[in-house]
Amino acid sequence: MTEDGQLEVRRTLKICATFDHRVIDGIQAARLCQEINSLLADPDSLR
Predict the structure, then answer these.
(1) What is the pLDDT of residues 28-43, one digit of tens each?
(2) Domain ranges in the chain?
């Protein structure tokens, strides 16, 4: 949705990852996903 509440069509990007549970725990994967999500939600923070 736009800031004024209107729906709009946007391109999407699907990101997939696989983890070996012998190396990484579920909580670590969840934290990584959360960090990636926050960075992609605010791309200006990448500068």
Answers:
(1) 888 988 998 898 888 8
(2) 20-47
